[in-house]
């Protein structure tokens, strides 16, 4: 009996601590309104050291969505203007961009200005890490073999930018820099969770960035939220799949070319024209 009540007390304490943790988040979900495009596989056959690491096909990470349209790799953040005077220090742990099997991990990497920034290489051959940042310190260096972590200059200001590898054209990652710590990336089920420690209660605007559906940093789609007791449940944000394909986002310099652009056969004929335009813009 005693044991049972002890177990019950522990379970209750755990439940309470879970609920108090849950109180400290902005939560929500991102999805595509419409049929998610089927991701094409990346063709690494021309580079044997890359292909050798992937017994199974590697889907293009540009749009990672499940059958229900739940969308991963969306960066959700409190809008810059509302966030700039907010409290919050850069996390102590570094933001890490890793390279493994000729792919970047993670594919999208949000970080805070001033946070330590480390680039790793798990492959024992050359990658070139080339940022297309225009506001932040640009970097462009080779990592010729395995590297446990090269610390580079921290980013300084709010910006979304692409990182690419000049050796392997399909390698693409996106970095997002914020001047506050209130951001998150949607997971494969489309959900996200933004910790609110230090965020005063009140009305805020969330912005939603995605490399294909919304990459114009000055014109990101938004949802309004009210944070109360550190908690808010945001309305589900839906990207319109069809509209986005007909009218590609005009990202800031360096954001437009997708990994998929290097492939000859687009998943749908309608996608071909905007992709070509983007390549043309990027080559200027
Ligand atoms: Cu590479």
SSE succession:
HEHEHEEEEEEEEEEEEEEEHH
Question: What proportion of the residues form beta strands (DSSP E)?
Answer: 25-35%
What's the CATH architecture?
Sandwich
CATH overall fold name: Immunoglobulin-like
Tally the beta strands: 17
Strand arrangement across the biggest beta sheet: 5-11-10-7-8
As residue ranges, the low-confidence spans are: 13-22, 243-284
Textual characterization of the structure:
The protein is α+β, with helices and mostly antiparallel strands and 284 residues long. It has one domain (20-283): Immunoglobulin-like. The chain has helices at 2-22, 48-51, 80-83, 241-246, 272-283; strands at residues 25-33, 75-78, 95-100, 103-105, 108-112, 117-121, 127-131, 140-143, 147-152, 159-164, 172-178, 183-185, 191-195, 202-209, 222-227, 232-233, 237-240. Mean pLDDT is 82; it is low at 13-22 and 243-284. It binds copper (II) ion (CU). Copper (II) ion is lined by residues 102, 127, 165, 167-168, 171.
Summarize the structure.
With about 280 residues, this protein is α+β, with helices and mostly antiparallel strands. It has 5 helices and 17 strands.
């Amino acid at each position: 009996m005693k044991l049972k009540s002890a177990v019950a007390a522990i379970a209750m304490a755990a439940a309470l601590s879970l609920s108090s943790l849950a109180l400290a988040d902005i939560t929500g979900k991102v999805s595509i309104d419409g049929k998610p495009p089927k991701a094409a596989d990346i063709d690494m056959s021309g580079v044997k050291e890359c292909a050798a690491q992937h017994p199974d096909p590697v889907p293009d990470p540009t749009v990672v969505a499940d059958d229900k349209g739940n969308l991963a790799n969306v960066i959700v953040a409190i809008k810059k203007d509302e966030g700039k005077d907010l409290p919050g220090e850069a996390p102590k742990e570094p933001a890490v961009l890793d390279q493994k099997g000729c792919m970047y991990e993670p594919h999208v990497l949000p970080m805070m200005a001033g946070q330590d920034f480390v680039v790793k290489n798990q492959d024992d051959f050359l990658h070139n890490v080339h940022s297309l940042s225009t506001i932040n310190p640009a970097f462009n260096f080779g990592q010729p073999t395995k590297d446990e972590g090269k610390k580079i200059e921290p980013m300084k200001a709010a910006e979304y930018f692409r990182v690419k590898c000049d050796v392997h054209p399909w390698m693409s990652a996106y970095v997002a820099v914020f001047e506050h710590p209130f951001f998150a990336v949607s997971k494969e089920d489309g959900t996200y969770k933004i910790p609110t420690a230090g965020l005063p209660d009140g009305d805020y605007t969330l912005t939603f960035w995605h490399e294909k559906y919304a990459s114009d940093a000055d014109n990101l789609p938004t949802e309004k939220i009210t944070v109360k007791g550190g908690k808010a449940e945001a309305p589900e944000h839906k990207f319109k799949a069809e509209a986005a394909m007909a009218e590609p986002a005009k990202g800031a310099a360096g954001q437009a070319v997708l990994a998929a652009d290097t492939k000859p056969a687009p998943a749908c004929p309608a996608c071909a024209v905007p992709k070509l335009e983007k390549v043309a813009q990027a080559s200027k």
